[in-house]
Each structure stands twice: as structure tokens, then as C-alpha cells.
């Protein structure tokens, strides 16, 4: 059985078991440890507690599970630092697509539990500013 977990504002994912949790609520989700195949963060890493949400994704992902991140390109302060922070949280980068000038797409596999405790350098995203058009 394929299970996907998303923290999304836009929800384009379809699967046999699909859980959608609003991103601005508590990072804890009512799912068992290692019960999810894919966790998706799509335009939803908006809080100041990014590590809490990513640690929760690690908790519920099965070993080898996939973490997918889609965020606005202009929000990234230091891509190398961001990727290093995710490595400390137990994720290995599988692929990244930085070719779009508006959105970055990152794919990770869960390789183990988080190694880091406390704040992580590099795990910072700029606020998302909306322009009036």
C-alpha cells in the first residue's frame, strides 16, 4: 500500500491513501512512526520552525522513504547550507531541479534519524513576498 503525506497549500498529489495536513498548524501529525512512503512540502515551509516539520517528516517516513520539497526559488538564502541541514536531519539528496527561475524542486531519501539537535545553520528560507500584479 502506497501512503503519501503532504503539507501543502496546493494539492496536486493523488494516491490510494492521501493525508493532507495544513502547514501552519502544529508540526505533529496523527500518524504512526515509519508509516508513510512519501512526504511532500509544496509551498508550505513558511514557519520559523522548519526543523520541527522536517523532523516530523523523518519520523513518519519509512526507511528509504521519499521527501519532496517544492519551494519558491527566491526564498533560498544558501542552497548548500539548506542541503547540509537536511543531511543532518537524516535525508540524502537524490535529485534537485534548479532550472526553473521561480520554483526549486528537491528530492531526498530518508537514510536515518536526525543527527542534529537544536538549531541548524543553513536551514533558513526568506519570507515569501507576494507582488501585486
UniProtKB/TrEMBL annotation:
UniProt subunit comment: Component of the eNoSC complex.
Q: Which GO BP terms, alphabetically? A: cellular response to glucose starvation; methylation; rDNA heterochromatin formation; regulation of transcription by glucose; rRNA processing
GO MF annotation, one: methyltransferase activity
Alphabetized, the UniProt keywords read: Methyltransferase, Nucleus, rRNA processing, S-adenosyl-L-methionine, Transferase
Tell whether rRNA processing is among the UniProt keywords.
yes
Q: Where in the cell is it found?
A: Nucleus, Nucleolus
Name of a matching Pfam family: Methyltransf_8
Q: Which GO terms describe its cellular component?
A: chromatin silencing complex; nucleolus; rDNA heterochromatin
Q: What is this protein called?
A: Ribosomal RNA-processing protein 8
Task: Tell me where it mainly resides.
Answer: nucleus
Q: What is the lineage of its organism?
A: Eukaryota, Metazoa, Chordata, Craniata, Vertebrata
Function recorded in the entry = Essential component of the eNoSC (energy-dependent nucleolar silencing) complex, a complex that mediates silencing of rDNA in response to intracellular energy status and acts by recruiting histone-modifying enzymes. The eNoSC complex is able to sense the energy status of cell: upon glucose starvation, elevation of NAD(+)/NADP(+) ratio activates SIRT1, leading to histone H3 deacetylation followed by dimethylation of H3 at 'Lys-9' (H3K9me2) by SUV39H1 and the formation of silent chromatin in the rDNA locus. In the complex, RRP8 binds to H3K9me2 and probably acts as a methyltransferase.
Family from the record: Belongs to the methyltransferase superfamily. RRP8 family.
Might you give the EC number(s) for this enzyme? 2.1.1.-
